[in-house]
Structures are given as C-alpha cells and as structure tokens.
Amino acid sequence: MSAGQNATHIAAHNRAVVLDVVRRDGPVTRSALTTRTALTAQTVSNIAARLLADGLVRETGTAVRETGAAVRETGAAVRVAGPVAGRRLELAPDGRFAVGVHLDPAQVSAVLLDLAGGLVAEQHLGAADVDDPSSTLDAMAGAVDDLVTAARIDRARVAGIGVAAPGPIEQDRAALGAPVQLASWSGVPIAAELAERTGLPVRIEKDVVASALAEWWTARSTEDLVSVYLGHGVGAGIVVGGEVVRGSTGNAGEFGGIPVHAHGGWTELWEACQPLQQVRRGVGAGLLPPVAEDPASVRAAFEQLCALPAARPLLAEAGAALGSALVHVVELLDVQRVVVGGSAALAGGATLLDALHARLFERLGSRRAPAVAFTALGEDVVARGAACAVLLTSAPAGPVAPAVRQVRTGGPARPRDIAHPW
Asked: Which residue, 105, 115, 215, 225, could crosslink 295 as a Cys pair with Cβ 3.0–4.6 Å?
C-alpha cells in the first residue's frame, strides 16, 4: 500500500534539491534550475525567493537572457517580447555555518565549516576521556565557542553541531549504544548534554556515514562512492544515487566482520588491519617495545610502526585485507570510486593504499576495478562530515534537545553491539 505524501516534507526536499544544484553548479539561472530539477518554474521561483530571503543564495553577475515574461531590474518591472533579463543565483557560503565534532577514542577534533563545506577553523582536543564523558563534553563545548569566536561570525548563523561517533548510534540519534572502545559512553545523551552546554541544536551521525557525507558534499560530482574509514576502528560509508546510505537505524557501514585471508590465515577484517592488532604484531616481531593499550598510546605506537621500513609487510597485509573485503562491496553496489581516509589509513600511506588497489585489480580486473585514492580532506574528514550533516538541512537540524541534569555513565549495553572489540 502506498504511503501518503507529507506536503511539508516535499517542500523541504524540493528546497534542498534546488540549493544543492546552486551549490554544485552555480552561478545558475532560474530557468536552468527548472530544467535540472524538473520542478515547475513557479516552484523554482518561490524556492529561490525563500533562499534569497534566508541569505543562503545571492544574485550575482551580469544579467543573462532567458525566456520569460517579466523580471525586476533596478527596482522596476520590465516586460519584453521573447527573452528577458534574469540574474544568476550562486551560493552564499557565509549564509550558514556548522560545527562538526569527531568523537574518536584517540583524538577528538572539531571543525567549523561554511555553507559550501569550506573549512573555516579547526581544533584538536586530544584523546577522549573513556571513563568520564562529562570532561570531554565540556571540552567539546569549549571548542565550539572557541571556533565561533575566532571566526568572528554571528552565532545566529551557526545552524548547529554535528557529532560523529563510533557505532552503534541509538535510533533517535541522541545517544551512543554500546561502543566497545567507549564503554562508559553507552547511553550518554550526547545531543542533550552538548545542546545544554552550547545552546545549539545537535545531531549525531555514525563516523563512517559522516566520512561518506563529507566526500559527497565537497565534490562537484554526485557519483556513487565507498568511503573506507580506518582509524581506531574500520568501516565503510556508502553513497548511492546521490544519497548517503544510513540504513534503517543510522548504523550502516559495518563491514569489519568480513572474513579475509591475511597474516597467514583466515581472520575478520578488523583483526587484520585495526591499529591495536598491528601494534601487537609489531611488538611480537620485535619492531616495537611493549606499549600501553589506551587509545592515545596505541595511536602513537601505530604511527611509530608505520615509519619503520621493516613494518611495510604488515601495512601491505592490512591494505590487501581491506581490498579483499571491498571487492564484495564494489561488486554488490557497482561503484567506480573508493576514497580511503582515517588516521590509521593516512599513517599507512602509499604502502597500504597500493596494496589495497592491487588486490582490487587482482580480483576485479582493470575494467571493473574502481578508482582508489586517499581523501583530500585530511584526518578531519569525519568531523567535516558531521558538520555537513547539519548543512545538508541548510537550517537548524531541529529543536535544542531538552536539558539533562546529569550524565549517565556505564549504562546497560544494547543487545546489538556492532562495534568490533580490540
């Protein structure tokens, strides 16, 4: 049975479609918007007027000739036969801003983006406090204030805060489920806590979903892609048909459990390439001294390992394992673009990426293997994607979540724990 259509939802969708065409292809005329969006001229005109009034787009450049009846020029209505003058629309990057925060166990980062997805400011806060969420939430709120103050922008133009975190994300996107690497954060109402501290609306995205959204938002192309994220954990964000795949609960992207043959035997992907597993292998091979296994120490040790020529076989095995797992994803979705990001992937460098590409080429052949490249957005790709999740609405993501008096820690774990263990 077909579902009914919500007029408010349709209006918001059409507005987003028009704004996206202006963002990617502007400056663009209203008639071109009508053609590219398949909306009526009247609908496009109404949406354009609203976007102009909201300060999200602006008219620019010399008037161009396009078919129509009348336009307003220099304050007066002018009617001509045939083509009439009209101005192009372009995005107003300073019309809205958004803050993105990446809650990574080994490194919390925050960025401020403009409406075009341009990086305005960034700040790195160090490792998350795995035992006391309150202290990290305080640091996040402080970073938001610092970024907005340093950029000297009107806080009213900040659409909100996006927080990207390891899964699972609760369905209402207001809290984390039971992330193994952040156990004390289970059930903590992050959205409400951060909203109370900042006075801004907050939404939560899964980290790999955010990485894919960042890649899609910042590219002129809307082609399908897979965004591989290898940081403290491993996952893959997906864009199909110009839409980021979130899944029914917002937790799409888990592929760390795919069996792969690496390091001399069959294992799960996360065991083949996760930084801690590689550090343990490095210690076992005498390449590293024994190290503490807290997230910050693991990150430092892994970066040290990646700098050693003797560790290249380990990095190549990790890259080949990623390639083996990606073969199934690429064939299932028929995508032609793979973007690789995350602190561990970037630390692995060309050795890891070349091995990944070679495995895809080996299994799929030159005609079917996708293009593979490191992200151009650096280590902050996930934080940028969290901000893009807010910008995608081109308006506040929703009402400020209700205040919560106390952070709950150590809450009961959800039965469905999709985060992979160490």
From this structure: 105
pTM > 0.85: no
The mean pLDDT of 13-35, rounded to a whole number, is 88
- Got the DSSP string for 179-195? -GGGGGGTT--HHHHHH
What pLDDT does residue 87 have?
84
Strand, coil or helix: what is 370?
coil
Burial 20-31 (b: 16+ CB within 10 A, else e): bbbbbebbbbbe
* Alpha carbon distances (Å) from 19 to 49, 57, 115, 168, 410: 12, 8, 10, 31, 42
Per-residue pLDDT reduced to its tens digit, 397-410: 333 333 333 444 44
Q: Are 211 and 157 in contact (CB under 8 A)?
A: no
**Residue at 331: amino acid letter:** E
- Strand 97-103, strand 158-165: pairing: parallel
Collapse the DSSP code of 111 into the 3-class scheme (helix H, G, I; strand E, B; otherwise coil) and give the result: strand
Collapsing DSSP to helix, strand or coil, 127 comes out as: coil
Three-state secondary-structure class, residue 332: helix
Give the residue from 69, 68, 62 showing the smallest Cα distance to 32.
Answer: 68
Please give the structure tokens belonging to residue 341. 């990001």
Question: Which of 250, 248, 310 lies closest to 278 in space, CA to CA?
Answer: 310
In three-state secondary structure terms, 385 is helix
DSSP-H helix ranges across 152-284: 190-198, 207-218, 269-273, 275-284
Report how far residue 206's alpha carbon sits from residue 210's, in angstroms, rounded to the nearest whole number.
6
